[in-house]
Write a structure and sequence with these properties.
- The protein has helices at 5-15, 18-25, 32-63, 66-93, 96-119, 125-154, 159-188, 191-210, 220-224, 230-243, 245-260, 268-275, 280-304, 310-329, 333-361, 367-380, 382-396, 398-418, 420-430.
- With 436 residues, it is mainly alpha-helical.
- It has a single domain (24-216, 230-430), classed as Growth Hormone, Chain: A (Up-down Bundle).
- Helix 4 runs parallel beside helix 6 (125-154), helix 7 (159-188) runs antiparallel to helix 13 (280-304) and helix 14 (310-329) runs antiparallel to helix 18.
Length: 436
């Protein structure tokens, strides 16, 4: 969509006013469909983070093992590594609303089963492993579909704002969920967390059911594409990643940092107990501080509503790596809270810009497959990353494990910076992202 000089003047004038900036922060919510989706996700994600906190604490109580924590996380994300690319193919072929109704319903069922096992005191660690793997299989389809569905709800003009708002509720839930979870675990145990998680899927299912398919931004290229076999469809997506330097840079840096750096959060229970010597409530506070920094970052990005910048992404990636290293060295609880909040801010500034870059530069008919590659490297690397940090923590302690993860992430950020020139040229030629 072209913007006239007069519209640019109006836009620049409005951004100078606090009211204009506030409205711009939430501009994507003017879409009824996105508003329904966003509101339902807000409630559901609080339950998800409560359950995630509860699951980590439950595994720690059942096993008292850093390795068991890593295994539980690995099993939850291994299916994403194995199946998310095929989930992206489904996202490009099938109605995304219908697929999300199925995946969210199945996730609710998984949460209810875990609640029953914990409430009846019959839960064993292998139960948690199986349910974590089931959730991972569901997420392998759900994640690329959800990512690709956003642009159908809001259109391309406000995609940056919509992605930032999605990040904001994800991280708002990260603040509220673990904080509530820590209090509930300390007073009532883990079972209520899993019950609340199962109930929290009700609003998102209602929101999806109420979405008006007629008001979706249909992508005409999809219907014009000839139907090809699954493997050829997969190769089309991978070829586009390989031959588009801007996309390849984002995928490569995200993959390396996700593998070594972002997976540090699986070790937060050990940070709370072994490094900082706090209990369940301390663990909740640390997790919430990470979410608070991430939330502030998401709101800052939403208020700016700028075109994504590869340079901004790489700067944020370097900042994330350095802050994570400082967090690993801290043994003082108040300082650790500040550092983990700053780490969360840099992490979202890095990943949200990467997400928006891919959605902006990718053709509509390939978006599901490209976002499945993004989810593959962002979350599919978690099994290896969790095992990596779990083995390091088991052998050398949690502080050394996080420090090594931060160092490897920093190396990836530096390599990305050195190799950025072809990606910047690719982005300029595409005329789809703003290079700063």
């Amino acid at each position: 969509m072209q913007i006239t000089d007069e519209q640019q003047k109006i836009s620049l004038t409005s951004t100078d006013k606090p009211t204009g900036r506030f409205l711009r922060t939430f501009s994507a919510l003017q879409s009824r469909n996105f508003r329904l989706f966003w509101t339902g996700q807000l409630v559901s994600l609080v339950g998800t983070w409560m359950a995630s906190t509860g699951q980590s604490w439950l595994v720690l109580q059942l096993t008292h093992s850093a390795l068991a924590l890593a295994v539980a996380g690995a099993l939850q994300f291994l299916p994403i590594l194995l199946f998310s690319l095929f989930g992206g193919i489904l996202a490009d072929r099938l109605p995304k609303k219908r697929m999300l109704l199925f995946t969210q319903s199945f996730s609710a069922l998984q949460a209810a089963i875990l609640f029953l096992l914990v409430a009846t005191h019959t839960v064993q660690v292998w139960h948690v492993y199986i349910l974590a793997a089931m959730l991972g299989i569901t997420n392998a389809i759900d994640m690329p579909t959800r990512q690709a569905f956003v642009v159908e709800m809001v259109g391309s003009d406000t995609i940056s704002n919509a992605i930032a708002l999605n990040s904001s509720i994800f991280n708002m839930a990260r603040i509220v969920g673990p904080g509530i979870a820590g209090v509930i675990i300390a007073r009532l145990g883990e079972a209520p967390l899993f019950l609340l998680n199962a109930i929290s899927f009700v609003p998102v299912l209602i929101g999806l059911a109420l979405i008006d398919s007629k008001q979706l931004y249909r992508q005409p290229q999809i219907s014009n594409q000839p139907r090809v076999g699954t493997m050829k469809s997969l190769r089309q997506g991978l070829d586009y990643v390989w031959k588009t330097p801007a996309v390849l840079l984002v995928i490569a840096v995200i993959g390396a940092v996700s593998l070594f750096g972002i997976n540090f959060n699986v070790s937060l229970p050990l940070v709370a107990t072994d490094l900082l010597h706090t209990g369940a409530e301390g663990y909740g506070v640390i997790s919430s501080a990470l979410g608070l920094g991430a939330l502030l970052s998401a709101l800052w990005l939403a208020a700016g509503n700028r075109r994504p910048s590869l340079v901004q992404m790489l700067i944020a990636c370097n900042a994330f790596s350095i802050l994570l290293g400082l967090f690993a060295l801290s043994h003082w609880y108040p300082l650790s809270i500040v550092l983990i909040a700053a780490t969360g801010f840099a992490q979202i500034a890095f990943t949200a810009v990467a997400n928006t870059t891919l959605q902006t530069v990718t053709p509509d008919h390939l978006r599901g497959r490209i976002m499945s590659v993004y989810m593959l490297v962002l979350n599919g690397s978690t099994p290896i990353g969790n095992l990596f940090i779990g083995v390091l923590a088991h052998g050398f302690g949690i502080s050394i494990a996080i420090l090594v993860s931060a160092l490897l992430s920093w190396i990836a950020a530096i390599v990305g910076w050195v190799k950025r020139a072809p990606a910047l040229k690719s982005a300029r030629e595409a005329h789809t992202i703003q290079i700063q």
